[in-house]
Amino acid sequence: MAKTRPSKKSPKKAGKSGLNGSGKKMNEDPAILYDQATTLLQTGHAEAALPLAQRGFDAASTGSPNVLRGLNLIGEIYVELGEIDAAREHFTRAVALDPNGEVPESEGGGAEKFLWLAQLSEAGGNDSVNWFEKGVATLRRNIQLLEQSGKADDALAAQEEKKKLAHALCGVVEIYMTDLSWEEDAEARCEALVTEALLVAPDSPECLQTLASVRISQLRHDDAKAALSRSLELWKDLPPDSPLVPDFPTRVSLARLLMEAQMEVEALEVLERMVLEDDHSVETWYLGGWCLYLLGKGERLPPTKGDLSEAELRQSTLRSSRSWLKQSLKLYELIDYEDVKLKEHAEELVQDLQNELGDMDDDSDDAEVADEEWEDESNDEDDGDEDQKMADS
């Protein structure tokens, strides 16, 4: 993008013009603009963050740390905006300035650009692995330096770097389970990588999920269930804003893994919590509907606090399934979602449910979500008794 035009005002008038000693406007300090843009990005305002980050980049002096920091920040903003080509371009330019990740993170260096390019690679496969390996090498070096310093702050920073390292190793595992699954040593590599990841970050829900995915591919379902249970135990009772709760995409993947491991009740608990956090996620409503469908059709029904018979609970579960699936289809059309296979499967499931439950013109029952249909009926009765007591008094 074009650079901003330099000021023509004389430095002698800096006191009146608002210029600092370097001839830049005080409010055009790249570091300040980057901080403002970062705050906007982290609070979900990527569109507003972009012009601020670009202004900071345009104001940065060539060769200064602010140039590298700006390239990485703008790249992350473009990722959030879905402009993948632009994001890839900026991360590639950042690599040209710091090809071995030796520039300190405080100056915009580090492993992030390599890890982003691994995820954004058009070629995938070995190209992604190569970018991941550059990021992993950078993180290992940083961890060693931080641990050698003996400072308390550096020890905390090393723990954060270890989490990044573990997640990067899991990223390589995913590639060997998909794009490179045909490699003769794919399984051995996955085993070694996930083992190292868990040694580095033994209490990482994401690493335990990756372990479960590997175990499922090996048909070791009991081991997969154990890993998934451990992953859930680490955060399921924490408040939604806890930093220990995995991010939304990670929990979507978790729900899929739980369903694959035939842990539908646990998957539903995860999904019910997620729709309370974001009720506009097509995939979450779809997975919840599919999960309820499997429960309603299978032997393991969801728990209920009421006194419903098995037949009544099964019908209630299937009605809830239809509700969730219809909601996913409504959102699909509303936001122009692009996963055609998801839509086709949701429609197939809805049609099957319509055939079983009856094709109703009045969808009032489908407006309810599963947790509402499984409310403790005794609580309702207690509330009614309490209301009557208040009226009598």
TrEMBL record:
Q: PROSITE patterns, per this entry? A: TPR, TPR_REGION
Origin, by domain of life?
A: Eukaryota
Q: Which UniProt keywords apply?
A: TPR repeat
Record's protein name: Uncharacterized protein
Q: Tell me the organism.
A: Helicocarpus griseus UAMH5409
TPR repeat extents: 68-101
What InterPro entries does this protein's entry cite? TPR-like_helical_dom_sf (IPR011990), TPR_rpt (IPR019734)
Q: Where is the composition biased (Acidic residues)?
A: 358-386
